[in-house]
Amino acid sequence: MACILLLVRDAENRHTVEQAIQSLSAHTIEEAPDGATAIQMVEKGGIDLVLADTETDAFDGFEICRRLRLKDKTAAIPVVILATAQSPVELRLRGLDLGVADFIVLPIEPLELLARLGSALRSKALADEVRRHNIELAGKVLERTRQLEELAGELRADRDTLRDTFNIIEDGLLLVEASGHVQLENNALRHMLGEPESWRPASGERLLSGKASETGADLTMRETLAALARDAAAKNAIESRTFSLHGRQFEARAYPAAGRRILLYVRDVTEERDREVRRLQSEKLASIGMLAAGVAHEINNPASFVLANLEALAGLLQSLDGQTGVDPKTGKRLGFGDVLFEAMTIVQESKEGMARIHRIVRDLHAFSRVDEGTTRLTDVNAAVESSMTMLRSELRYRTQVERDLRATLRVRASAARLGQVFLNLILNAAHALAGGNPKRNRLYVRSYDDGDHVVVEVEDNGPGIPPDIMPRIFEVFFTTKPPGLGTGLGLPISRDIVRSAGGELTAESTPGRGALFRVRLPAAAASAAEAPKTLTSHKAVQRRRLLAIDDEALLLKAYQRMLSA
Question: What is the CA radius of gyration of the chain?
Answer without folding.
Answer: 55
